[in-house]
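Practice problem 4.
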C-alpha cells in the first residue's frame, strides 16, 4: 500500500477501528477499567485511546466511563505510589525501566511541591515518575490520592467532552 493512497489508508484505519470496537464492546467497562489501571502503572499504554473508543460506543454510558476510567487510573497510580514507599529505587529502575536520575530529579520536585504535584500525574512519561517519587518521600496518602483523582478525573472529563463534541459535530 502506498502511503499516499488515502482511500486504502482510511479503509485500513476503519477496519482496525471496527475490530477494536468489537473487542471493547465485548469487554465493556471491565476492559476500560483494566486498560486504565495498566496505563497508570509501568505498562506503557495510551488509555485515552481506549477511553475515546468506549465513550464513542453507543452501548456505554459516557459518565460511567469517566468514573470507571478515573478509578482504574487512580488505583494504578496508587500501585506506583505503594511501590515508591517500598524505597527500592534500584528495583524500580530495573523493572520499571525508569532511569535513576529521573526519579531523583522528581524526588526533588516532590519535596518542593508535595502532594499537589500529583495533579499532573496523568501526563505521559513523567506521571509515573511523579507518583513513585511521592511514594518514595512518603507524602501524605490522602492528599496525594485526592490530587491524583482530581487530575486524572479532569483529564477524562475533558477528553469525554471533546470526544462527544466532535461526534455531535460530525453527525
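Answer key:
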Amino acid at each position: 500500500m502506498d502511503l499516499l493512497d488515502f482511500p486504502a489508508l482510511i479503509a485500513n484505519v476503519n477496519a482496525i477501528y471496527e475490530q477494536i470496537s468489537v473487542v471493547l464492546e465485548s469487554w465493556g467497562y471491565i476492559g476500560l477499567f483494566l486498560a486504565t489501571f495498566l496505563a497508570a502503572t509501568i505498562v506503557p499504554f495510551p488509555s485515552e485511546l481506549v477511553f475515546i473508543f468506549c465513550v464513542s460506543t453507543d452501548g456505554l454510558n459516557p459518565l460511567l466511563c469517566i468514573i470507571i476510567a478515573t478509578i482504574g487510573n487512580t488505583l494504578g497510580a496508587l500501585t506506583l505510589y505503594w511501590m515508591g514507599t517500598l524505597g527500592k529505587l534500584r528495583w524500580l529502575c530495573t523493572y520499571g525501566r525508569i532511569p535513576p536520575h529521573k526519579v531523583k530529579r522528581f524526588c526533588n520536585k516532590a519535596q518542593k511541591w508535595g502532594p499537589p504535584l500529583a495533579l499532573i500525574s496523568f501526563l505521559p512519561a513523567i506521571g509515573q515518575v511523579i507518583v513513585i517519587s511521592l511514594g518514595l518521600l512518603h507524602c501524605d496518602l490522602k492528599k496525594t490520592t485526592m490530587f491524583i483523582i482530581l487530575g486524572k478525573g479532569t483529564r477524562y472529563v475533558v477528553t469525554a467532552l471533546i470526544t462527544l463534541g466532535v461526534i455531535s459535530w460530525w453527525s
